[in-house]
Write a structure and sequence with these properties.
By secondary structure, chain A is an alpha+beta fold. The first copy, chain A, has helices spanning 15-26, 31-47, 63-70, 107-110, 114-120, 129-139, 183-187; strands spanning 9-10, 13-14, 53-57, 80-82, 89-94, 99-105, 144-151, 163-165, 172-174, 190-192.
């Protein structure tokens, strides 16, 4: 693989280290995780250093893992919010100032690169993901558009909800759901077995 | 800190390694991540090895990071689903057989341990999180209940939605949302700046 056009560093991490970590964490190397790294890089550079970095991703696919690998924002620590909008875009912002930068994989830019376009624009042809990844590593920085944005409010919900023990299952749940937990209110995704 | 009662291994990982990784990934060590590790361990042991492991967490707080650290399931690879139910519980299941084990931090068991109870049952007293973590490491295995469950269907959405370029912003979006993307349909969480 011709690695001469790869950036030596990607979003502040040694590129090879990032690829190694991404494969380990995500389970395999995907075009989405690699493209996501370029979004993180573009938004982060334009935003500049922030002690209070938050992230919003606009898709559940691949992109959240790039953010979790390359920023201090994880789903479980609350600094990463996830919207299931199906858009390959993210915003990094400072939760104190609410100033941010939104970055996205720009279809007009992607269209110039046949293999990446076949993957990203879902042209229905079978794509060789390894070659798409190699292409992305070569031209990724050219495919991203970004713009400064301002949030109306931090998306992290900092309210602490009172909890109670559910009278039906005996587990704790937030009382904002009412008299019982959501599972006992009929929304369980499971049924008992054995 | 008295580490003599800590398990040497936790959910298949050396306990000290896990604590180190958790601090790095999550940003700090939290009782929730440590308690989450005991849930992963309990569900995983009872389920047994699975080549097709999926996870569901029933809260967005802390628990997703324990799963992402200790299993192959991440948000971005689609094997971790996240319900914002506010319940400290998770299910590990095999996405082929749909057989799983659900594990939760059991309030009746937690109630026997004063500091952990003050944290988990939100008794309104100020808790020393480091001491709660130390307590959890000592008695965590006694605090978890679990039961075999069966899912009706895998929660991972494997359908690939057709995408199009939004006529307003020029970005790609899934056409299932209609004529334009959700941001252009009025749900943007940001406004342009500068």
């Amino acid at each position: 693989m011709d690695t001469s056009r790869w950036p030596r560093r990607l979003a502040g991490m040694d590129t090879e280290d990032f690829l190694h970590h991404a494969e380990e964490f995500h389970g395999h190397l995907s075009p989405g995780v690699v493209a996501g790294a370029f979004l993180v890089e573009a938004a982060g550079r334009r935003l500049g250093p922030s002690e209070h970095l938050n992230a919003v991703v606009e898709t559940v696919v691949c992109l959240p893992d790039a953010v979790q690998l390359l920023t201090p924002c994880t789903l479980g620590n609350g600094f990463l919010q996830v919207l299931d909008w199906g858009k390959f875009a993210l915003t990094l912002y400072d939760r104190m100032t609410l100033a941010g930068v939104r970055a996205w994989l720009d279809p007009a830019r992607v269209a110039r690169h046949e293999r990446v376009a076949a993957w990203y624009l879902r042209r229905g042809v079978k794509v060789d993901k390894e070659r798409v990844i190699a292409d992305l590593l070569g031209v990724g920085r050219d495919l991203v558009s970004s713009r400064p944005v301002r949030l109306e409010a931090a998306l992290k919900d900092t309210a602490r909800f009172p909890t109670a023990v559910c009278p039906d299952c005996g587990e704790t749940y937030p009382t904002r759901w009412g008299e019982r937990c959501l599972a006992c209110a009929g929304r369980a995704y499971y049924r008992p077995a054995e």
